[in-house]
Design a protein that fits this description.
GO cellular component, one term: membrane
Strand content: under 5%
Subcellular location: Membrane
Order of helices and strands: HHHHHHHHHHHHH
InterPro entries: EmrE-like, Sugar_P_trans_dom, TPT_transporter
Structural class: mainly alpha
Shape: globular
Number of helices: 13
Organism: Gracilariopsis chorda
Main location: membrane
Helix content: over 70%
Radius of gyration: 22 Å
Largest sheet: none
Distance between the termini: 44 Å
Number of domains: 1
């Protein structure tokens, strides 16, 4: 009798361990696939956008209208999300959800606008370094809202990423046209504020997607919002947030770029118009995949992890660009690349220890999410 009970308990433990191990493997493979989609769609969107801005590679007149492009990207992303979700209305979408989506969209619009201003006032290299500070602001917002705890390993890994990114861009050399000193402070302020809004946006996005009542209670007083009853899927998040991003960006796009865009369209031939439409749709589809993979990664990990991955993505883009285009990579570039990898490794080890304790609970809760 006792032997039978022990045998059943042993079989049950083995089955549970096998299921947990299988679930962990599936989870890790899914995260790897998402990161691949994230990096790939980001590279495609950036390269196509640069080609569109210059015009020469696409045999089109220059189309340097960043705000207009942001608006069209979010329109395409919204339409794709509506199609993928089969046009069904989410049963739990209420005024509270719409309000949070509006705030995230507004923060995204401000982040993009300030980043574009900074890019016009600063060198590309220095702007990239400042963007690499985003994880610190994500961590800062997380500490302020008590969503993250401060660990020495986390700070050390983020600091290593920023130092490594600085060395990578320093190894690429300065831009050909120096920035006038009188614009430097304005550009620096704009990029830092952009990083602040980026951190705030990612914190809200994590709350929006995960929907934990405890986390939502901590921002209840800040935004006067009610806690969400459940988290939203990545597709739902794109479908709700992208229209609001377009809504907040569109007035500025019309005011600052409307006349120039109208003149471009009026002076373009039919062939150029069709080619522009194809390019805009291509970038929009890439942005949809980018947003979806980002939101899904936030759901599976955290906003801090995704922002740390952003630094790695920037470094890999610089490094891969040097290899593919056979640019001369300096010692600083290689040193920075190694330091960033070390920072990512430290962060990954600490994150893995945390997940080892939380995965069984998260796997159960994920099954109940849409």
């Amino acid at each position: 009798m006792h032997f039978a009970m022990l045998w059943r308990r042993l079989v049950s433990m083995i089955s549970e361990n096998r299921y947990t191990h299988f679930a962990r493997v599936n989870r890790n493979l899914w995260i790897i696939l998402l990161v691949t989609c994230w990096f790939g769609s980001s590279s495609l969107a950036v390269l196509t956008t640069k080609a569109l801005f210059s015009g020469a590679a696409l045999r089109l007149p220059r189309f340097p209208f960043g705000l207009t492009l942001t608006a069209t990207n979010n329109v395409v992303a919204s339409l794709l999300a509506a199609i993928v979700s089969d046009g069904t209305r989410d049963h739990d979408v209420n005024s509270n959800v719409v309000q949070i989506a509006s705030v995230i969209g507004a923060a995204t619009a401000v982040e993009i606008g300030l980043s574009n201003i900074a890019l016009n006032l600063l060198t590309v290299s220095f702007s990239t370094v400042l963007k690499g500070m985003a994880p610190f602001f994500v961590l800062g917002w997380g500490l302020a809202l008590k969503m993250h705890s401060l660990h020495f390993g986390t700070v050390l890994s983020l600091l290593a990423m920023v130092v490594g990114l600085s060395l990578v861009v320093a190894g690429q050399g300065e831009d050909a046209s120096p920035v006038p000193s009188r614009f430097f402070q304005a550009g620096l302020l704009a990029q830092m504020l952009s990083a602040v809004f980026s951190g705030f946006r990612w914190m809200l996005t994590q709350i929006f997607i995960k929907g934990e009542p405890i986390l939502n209670e901590r921002i209840k007083a800040l935004l006067m919002l009610r806690p969400l009853s459940r988290g939203l899927s990545a597709v739902e998040t794109v479908k709700l947030v992208s229209p609001f991003t377009c809504f907040w960006v569109l007035p500025f796009a019309l005011f600052l770029e409307g006349t120039s865009v109208f003149a471009w369209v009026h002076g373009a031939s039919f062939e150029e118009g069709v080619k522009l439409l194809v390019v805009l749709i291509t970038i929009g589809v890439s942005v949809y995949v980018l947003l979806w993979s980002e939101y899904e990664l936030v759901r599976l990990t955290s906003s801090l992890t995704v922002s740390a991955g952003f630094v790695l993505k920037e470094v890999l883009t610089v490094f891969a660009g040097g290899v593919i285009f056979r640019d001369r990579l300096s010692f600083l570039t290689y040193a920075g690349f190694i330091i960033v990898q070390g920072g990512v490794l430290v962060y990954g080890v600490q994150r893995h220890k945390t997940l080892e304790e939380r995965i069984p609970t998260e796997l159960t809760s994920d099954d109940n999410r849409v």
